[in-house]
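Budget justification aside, the reviewers requested a transparent look at the raw inputs and outputs of the sequence design task funded under Objective 1. We therefore reproduce one unedited record. The lines immediately below are the structure tokens for a 149-residue chain.
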């Protein structure tokens, strides 16, 4: 993405940059700003590597190259992370409370491929509900139509 002289190539950084231009409530101020960064970094370091490990071996690779044991290993590594998210969502509909923000966008975006391709979120029903809330908002549906056809 190019914004004047600034060129960014990492999607989560692009999202944070755009959210920063939009300001609150998309990118909150104060302590919630730090929390939004925390969940974005958590998405990249804790959730994404394991979701991608599962995805490669569950649906991305050609069927003959998929390794069910590797898909299971990705799932086994992702489940404790989803348990953390499940606990966090116990008393709030979105990551920072009542309203959707860039942290929700970034983490739901990281988990989108798994969600869209049949990952079983039954062990984390709050996460499943949160994913639905994030990915069925009108703006999310419009973006999904572009991606999903």
């Amino acid at each position: 993405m190019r914004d004047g002289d600034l060129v960014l190539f990492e999607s989560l950084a692009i999202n944070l940059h755009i959210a920063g231009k939009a300001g609150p409530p998309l990118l909150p101020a104060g302590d919630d700003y730090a929390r939004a960064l925390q969940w974005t970094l958590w998405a990249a370091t804790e959730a994404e590597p394991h979701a991608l490990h599962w995805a490669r071996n569950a649906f991305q690779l050609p069927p003959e190259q998929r390794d069910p044991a590797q898909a299971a290993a990705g799932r086994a590594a992702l489940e404790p992370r989803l348990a953390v998210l499940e606990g966090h969502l116990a008393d709030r509909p979105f990551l920072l409370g009542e309203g959707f923000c860039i942290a929700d966008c970034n983490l739901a975006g990281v988990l989108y491929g798994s969600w869209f391709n049949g990952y079983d979120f039954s062990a984390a029903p709050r996460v499943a509900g949160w994913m639905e809330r994030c990915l069925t908002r009108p703006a999310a549906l419009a973006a999904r139509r572009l991606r999903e056809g």
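The mean pLDDT is 97. The first strand starts at residue 2 and ends at 3. Computational costs for records of this kind are itemized in the attached budget.
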